[in-house]
Amino acid sequence: MSIYNIPSLKIGNLEAAIPIIQGGMGVKVSMAGLASAVANEGCIGVIASVGLDYQRTVKYDPAMGEQALRSEIRKARSLSNGIIGVNIMYAISDHERFVRAAIDEGVDLIIVGAGVSVELPKYLNGRDVKLLPIVSSARAFNIICQFWSRNYNKLPDAVIVEGSMAGGHLGFSYGEVAEDKATKLEQIVSEVIAIANSYSPQIPVIAAGGVFEGADIARYLKLGASGVQMATRFVCTHECDVHENFKQAYLKANKEDIAIIKSPVGMPGRVIRNDFVERILRGETIPFRCTYRCLKSCDPKTIPYCIAKVLLNAAEGNLEEGFAFAGSNAYRCNEIVSVKSLVKKLVEETLLCLQ
Questions:
Q1: Are residues 167 and 104 in the same domain?
Q2: What is the pTM of this model?
Q3: C-alpha dist (Å) from residue 15 to 114, 205, 226, 255
Q4: 8 near 16, Cβ under 8 Å?
Q5: What percentage of the chain has pLDDT greater than the value 70?
Q6: Is residue 265 located within the same domain as residue 171?
Q7: Residue 163 sits in which domain range?
Q8: What string of DSSP letters covers 7-66?
Q9: What is the pLDDT of residue 58?
Q10: Does residue 93 surpass a pLDDT of 70?
């Protein structure tokens, strides 16, 4: 039990007083400002590595992406002594470069989703950086554990189980998400916990996707999870690094405005509906010029629009040529608050529901 009378989140020798990981949100949504503020409140703050250096006119240079990530990590460290992590998507072309840079900068943990990074432990070279894969099934988690154990004598330091109610790209088929047929998060978490508890020491399990209030946190703690990951809720904070227009899209959204699209990268994505989303849903092609294939699976010659460009536009406040990724509960955000007040409210709600 932490000083807040709420169970702390222990990941190896790391201990967060409050069992909340702030989810990594790209492009340029969760950067050093948000991550450091969250870490200062006893949670785990996370920088999203994707798109930190996206430029409109300059030809892409991979070294620029690495330097941008290093700069954000150093900035977060200068603002906080708390636990700082980096989310590095496996699907991006610079995955290995970013992992090596994050380890070199001494981040506390690396979170990897959008694919299974079976080779992730080989980059550690003896460094004490915690590795947290994101999975959407017990099968995926079991594969990672077996491969890492067999090839690197290493197990995940914790695992994040992300359900279909999360924002952004989702680890389910379009039909499963659009028709609400995906396995419920509670079931996946229970199945993953059964595997995680079979190891010694047991692997902490973090529930993610649709976690919005203290009642949700308490429910997963009672289920046996060690903590939760929350992203959507942190968008509407003063410290979130994204443009004010992006935050206002959350505040103005109604439940029916939360939509599922087919992303050009081959996965379903949850977004806030706007005129640009309507164009995409009608099947329009949005012309673009690609200076760098930032995602491994992307074929610029065949995709209808550039997801990186669209997300950059949104992050900079241009929602006429972009859209905001958002979780299923984004419409419930009704005010912009400080990270401190949000965390305080979440703790109070959780404690009430744990009694």
A1: yes
A2: 0.94
A3: 26, 14, 11, 36
A4: yes
A5: 90
A6: no
A7: 9-242+333-354
A8: --EEETTEEESS-EEEPP-TTTTS-HHHHHHHHHTTSEEEEE-TTTT--SSSPP-HHHHH
A9: 46
A10: no
